[in-house]
TrEMBL record:
Domain (Core-binding (CB)): residue spans on this chain: 74-155
Gene Ontology MF terms in the entry: DNA binding
GO biological process, alphabetically ordered: DNA integration; DNA recombination
Superkingdom field: Bacteria
Domain Tyr recombinase: 176-357
Keyword Iron-sulfur: no
Pfam families for this protein: Phage_integrase
Presence of the UniProt keyword DNA-binding in the record: yes
Keyword line: DNA integration, DNA recombination, DNA-binding
Protein family (similarity comment): Belongs to the 'phage' integrase family.
Identification of the protein by name: Site-specific integrase
Transmembrane stretches, start-end: none
Length: 367
């Protein structure tokens, strides 16, 4: 658990299962109140499984680290292994991302052999190399955060005597934005992929539901109710073929689909004799449709963009043509409509203000 100050009030950050929870404790932030709340909530908070496991793992690693080890040079690879042990209680996808980020960080540091050789000059060279890669703002921040956490861990474990990390601002490329397709472009793309049955049904589902790539590729025959006109989304598949739960609790949902998609799914299922999985994902990975997607865009004369833009296309078309915000948000699997509004407000029509509904109100006579 962690206490923190917010406008003079004491707040608590902890975990309930795998979910991070932040809440006000309703008292002023003073040393006495912190001590009181720690005693009062300590037993309850320590019951969190994830936090308890991570704390135990950290203590185990620190106990295993002896003073004698500090007398000889410590290899970066061994420190990285210890650092990544702290992620073992997290999802496999998160662990894999952490490992990939750590490999990239070491590459940008110049692949040092010993932990003691990482100094402020190394960190400066890290920033210089990072600035030259042209990574997105999000990825850049993730790598900087990974370096900071790694050096903080090394300092806490006494692998280094001083933390060389410092912050430096880096110019990153301007985000490309949502880049949704227009209805005309959607029709062009679907017309061009008539000969590719799998690609066509994938894009039809994607454009007409806004579901994420992994959610669509994980669909099974039992998830589709053609009589009621619904699709149940309760799993996703990672790039490594792992069947996982959807991104958030709200992503676990049942969505209504238009008649055109019902007909397309019925034909696809019947013609291909689908009994279980809707898409032929290869063992150990999921179906990769990026090449076909980029080829279709090129043939249509459309600027190259991510396959994920089908989700933005659905949301922008729904809202641009007067679709209900709450229904669109629920279909996308957002936690609330505010998330949808903040992401797609630009696509909601903004007609001139009209006072017509107010003209029918009788105000009586004014002298």
């Amino acid at each position: 658990m962690r206490f923190y100050n917010r406008k003079g009030k004491l707040y608590l950050e902890t975990y309930e299962g795998t979910k991070r929870v932040r809440k006000s404790l309703g008292v002023d932030d003073t040393p006495d109140n912190r001590a009181l709340m720690y005693v009062k909530l300590g037993g309850q908070v320590d019951g969190g499984k994830i936090e308890r496991e991570r704390r135990a793992k950290f203590q185990q690693i620190k106990n295993a680290h002896s003073t004698s080890t500090l007398m000889s040079p410590i290899k970066v690879s061994s420190v990285v292994d210890k650092f990544l042990e702290m992620t073992l209680s997290l999802k496999p996808t998160t662990q894999r991302t952490m490992r990939a980020h750590m490999r990239r960080v070491l590459e940008l540091l110049g692949n040092p052999t010993y932990i003691e050789s990482i100094n402020k000059e190394s960190v400066l060279n890290f920033y210089i190399a990072l600035a030259g890669r042209g990574f997105s703002r999000t990825h850049t921040r993730s790598l900087i955060s990974c370096l900071k956490n790694f050096l903080d861990f090394s300092m806490t474990m006494d692998y280094i005597q001083a933390n060389p990390f410092f912050k430096r601002r880096i110019q990153t490329p301007k985000p490309m934005g949502k880049q949704p397709l227009s209805p005309t472009e959607v029709s062009q793309v679907l017309e061009l992929c008539k000969g590719d049955t799998i690609m066509r049904i994938y894009l039809t589902i994607a454009f007409l539901t806004g579901a994420r790539v992994g959610e669509i590729l994980a669909l099974r025959r039992g998830d589709i109710d053609l009589e009621r006109g619904t699709i149940r989304i309760e799993r996703t598949i990672s790039e490594y073929g792992e069947i996982l739960t959807p991104k958030t609790d709200s992503s676990n949902r049942t969505i209504s689909i238009p008649a055109s998609l019902q007909n397309a799914l019925k034909a696809y299922i019947t013609q291909n004799g689908i009994q279980d999985a809707l898409f032929p994902n290869p063992p150990g990975r999921r179906l990769n449709l990026r090449k076909q997607w980029h080829r279709l865009l090129e043939q249509c004369g459309i600027t190259k963009r991510r396959l994920y833009c089908t989700r933005h296309t659905f949301a922008s078309m729904m809202l641009s043509y007067g679709g209900n915000l709450l229904h669109t948000s629920a279909t996308l699997g957002h936690n609330n409509a505010q998330i949808t509004l903040s992401a797609y407000a630009a696509y909601i029509p903004n007609p001139q203000a009209s006072f017509a509904p107010l003209e029918n109100i009788s105000l009586g006579a004014y002298q």
